[in-house]
Specification:
This protein has 357 residues and is mostly helical. The chain has helices at residues 3-22, 28-49, 54-110, 119-146, 148-182, 188-227, 232-242, 248-265, 269-295, 303-344. The longest helix is centred in the first third of the chain and has 57 residues, at 54-110.
Length: 357
């Protein structure tokens, strides 16, 4: 590749990055719409193979996405909100129980002295936190009331998400084909191979891993609900989301649920055994069914790599960096894998000698 072409590519990439940064306030509906279209496109292809036209397949897929989102909001959000309110009201009781029963039990078992929890300090901190939250909420509502245009613009962006999703689903294959035709003819076969492998990895993560997380959240939440745990949905949601890191969701969920069971039912073994059974069943379903069927071994990131990617994404770009960390890391793994193959077959690796065939 000529130096002039390299500089043109660098300038084009820098211009694109600057443009994306400048347009970031309006990119949300397009990013969410693109994600939903990417997730729904395989279903469109299956319906088309079954005899549906492209428009009918896209309409059926779009209706399925809308129905699934509506059902999730209607069924899960009210229950989740009730449990969050209950959790906030029970925090003082939990702290008092820790001082009265939990810490003395630990001292007796571990033969150590543990300082009691300062209830006054915790109360002052919670009071300051809620006052700050109320003040922030009041300021936000005041700003929204004073800026009807800003509110209308925000609602307009949210309303754009289903529109963008539908039209991207409709034109997805055509857009991919046009992008492929724009690739330099010399590098097009290699770039297509890389893109297909990256797509396989992203599909394993975005479609597979997200479905695993949702399934585990439902298994844990419904199971704990049947046991009688009052914070079942909250614990299930947290454990499901944390399962993006191998075994972390299981450990976090079972420890939290065990403490909640001890506080709710007292020092009885039966509720604990039921809680442990719920997480054991969830772990077996994940290991034997969900992971092999939905994800497999296509991501190629070891547990340590997953933890590092999430921490690095959060450190560099905050919460959104944590969300994008694993998809980006999976693509980087694909590129590094091909770079390693090229390096191992290079003259530099073999000390100037031709590589052995």
């Amino acid at each position: 590749m000529k130096d002039r072409n390299r500089w043109l590519i660098v300038i084009a990439l820098a211009t694109l990055a600057g443009l994306l940064y400048a347009l970031q306030p309006i990119l949300l509906p397009f990013m969410v719409g693109a994600l939903l279209a990417y997730l729904g496109n395989p279903l469109v292809h299956r319906l088309m193979r079954a005899g549906f036209s492209r428009v009918m397949a896209v309409s059926a897929t779009f209706a399925t996405l809308c129905l699934a989102g509506t059902v999730a909001l209607v069924l899960i959000l009210p229950r989740l909100w009730e449990q969050l309110v209950y959790l906030e009201s029970r925090i003082p009781s939990v702290l008092r129980w820790m001082n009265r029963e939990g810490i003395p039990w630990l001292e007796a078992k571990l033969k150590v002295d543990i300082n009691r929890i300062d209830m006054d300090l915790i109360t002052q901190w919670l009071t300051a936190f809620w006052r700050g939250a109320d003040a922030s909420t009041t300021d936000m509502l005041t700003q929204i009331a004073q800026s009807g245009l800003h509110l209308a613009a925000t609602l307009g962006l949210i309303a754009l998400i289903p529109v963008v999703t539908f039209y991207l689903l409709l034109d997805w294959d055509e857009l991919v084909l046009k992008l492929r035709h724009l690739l330099p003819r010399k590098y097009e076969p290699k770039l297509v191979v890389l893109a297909e492998e990256c797509d396989s990895v992203l599909a394993a993560f975005l479609r597979g891993q997200l479905l695993v997380m949702m399934a585990l959240g439902l298994i844990y939440g419904i199971g704990l609900q049947l046991v009688g745990i009052k914070l079942a949905m909250v614990i299930g949601l947290v454990a499901g989301l944390a399962s993006i890191i191998p075994y972390f969701g299981f450990i976090l969920g079972i420890v939290t649920a065990s403490f909640v069971a001890l506080f709710q039912f007292g020092l009885f073994i039966k509720p604990l055994l039921l809680v442990w059974s719920v997480f054991a069943i969830g772990q077996l379903i994940e290991s034997w069914i969900l992971q092999p069927w939905l994800v497999g071994d296509r991501i190629g990131l070891p547990p340590v790599g997953v933890i590092f990617a999430i921490m690095a994404g959060g450190q560099l770009f905050g919460f959104f960096g944590m969300l994008l960390a694993l998809p980006v890391a999976a693509i980087i793994v694909v590129l590094l894998r091909h770079a390693q193959k090229r390096y191992l077959s290079s003259h530099w690796y073999h000390g100037g000698e031709p590589p052995l065939v």
